[in-house]
Amino acid sequence: MTDVAMIVHNTVFSDSRVRREAASLAARGWRVLVVGIAVSGDFPPETALDGFTLRLVQPRFLRRRLPGKYGRALRMFIGYALAARELRRAQARVYHAHDFTGLLMLALAGLWRRVFVYDSHELYFDMNLSGGITPTQRLFGLLRPLEKWMAQRAAATLTVGEELADVLARTLAIPRPLVLWNAVDHRIPGQPERTFPTGQRLIVHSGGIVVARHLPELVAALAYLPEDVGLVLIGSGPLTEALQQQAAAQGTARRLTIVPPAAVHNVAPTLALAHAAAVLIASGATSYHLALPNKFFEAVAAGLPIIASPIPEVKALVERYDLGVLCDPTDPAAIAAAIQTLLQPDNYARYRANAQRARAELTWEHEEQKLVALYARLLEEKP
Fold it and tell me: Which of 20, 102, 205, 242 could form a disulfide with 98 if both were Cys (CB 3.0 to 4.6 A apart)?
């Protein structure tokens, strides 16, 4: 019998939060199944990963018949139905839904009367930065009341930051969620996967090369910085080519390096090859404004000083530990000025020492204790 069945709308391999939580529960001795969805690519249907079982549903038979973005969306919806079937088969003692999409699949499985946990990584319905609404977003918007209805039936709700916990408690009319920070687990060994340019002071950014991270402004900041300051982007995404063209047009192409993503356990060791990290998050949508992203904790785990947006959760921790410099992420000159301030020798030495102190305190080893205590209560076992 499965003790815990988690559900998430991705392939799990690069989802550090899901992997950490599942691994911590499995290490406690509970039998953990994670059900994910692979819309593209080919994966084994079942894999042993970090001590738990990963089962991926894959609507392969529709990939040629339903090409393009609308075909991908339809395959995802079909994937939800297949995942719901796997959840019903699991017969778990506790179900764990990651994000609203996980909650939706739990509802599709008809499991709202069972013991379940809602793990809200973000404000799902408040992430629109463009002002436009896609057909998929419009459809999901009609389902917004389902989040409240399901959350009020959950045995517990988790989230990633204090501000988000307050908003979720208020908007969903539920007890204040338990906050589990996305801190890195230092007990798992990792190693650098990439090599970076030598002879430069490097600012590094990890994560998708997508909108909402102020990457065009970060690349533009290179034009205001000394020749020995370079930028490394670790990741992939639709903005990659445009950023390369931007750097070429402004004459800083040789100072911009873009490398593929690193495996989950190797992100922090790879970041540690640089001198400082950029955590520039857009604040034009409520979910982003209240975010406390993985890249912040990955930078801390790498022991790096930080240049950051002054969004509430990030600002609070940067100031608490004196980790670096806050700046206006919409202004390339302001980003460059922040980088120059951070790299001044006396400042840099102080920030670097403080980053090491934060690294010792902001750990998953601490966060997992709260998760294990919750599940001990739900499974009626001693923590």
Answer: 102
Does residue 383 have a pLDDT over 60? no
Q: Give per-residue pLDDT as tens, 69-90.
A: 566 667 778 889 999 999 999 9
Q: Phi first, then psi: what are they for 206, rounded to 5°?
A: -115, 145
Assess whether 151 and 242 both reside in one domain.
Answer: no
Rg of the Cα atoms in the chain? 21
CA-CA distance, 265 to 16, in Å (whole number)? 8
For the stretch 290-312, pLDDT in tens is 999 999 999 999 999 999 999 99
b/e burial code for range 79-107 (CB count within 10 A of at least 16 → b):
bbeebbebbeebebbbbbbbbbbbbbbbb
- Would 281 be classed as within a structural domain? yes
For 254, list phi and psi in degrees, rounded to 5: -70, -15
Tell whether 136 and 237 lie within a shared domain.
no
Which pLDDT band, with edges at 50, 70 and 90, does 227 fall under? very high
* CA gap 358, 351 in Å, rounded: 10
Angle at 187 between CA 36 and CA 296, to 5 degrees: 70
With cut-offs at 50, 70 and 90, classify the pLDDT of residue 30.
Answer: very high
Dihedral angle computed from the Cα positions of residues 296, 297, 302 and 308, in that order, rounded to the nearest 10 degrees:
20
Is residue 137 in a domain? yes
Q: How far is CA 149 from the centre of its chain?
A: 25
Same-domain status, 342 and 373: no
Residues 251 and 141 in one domain: no
The H-or-E segment that residue 52 falls in is strand 52-57
DSSP state at residue 290: T
Tell me the C-alpha to C-alpha distance, in Å, between residue 173 and each of 124, 160, 217, 258.
16, 18, 38, 44
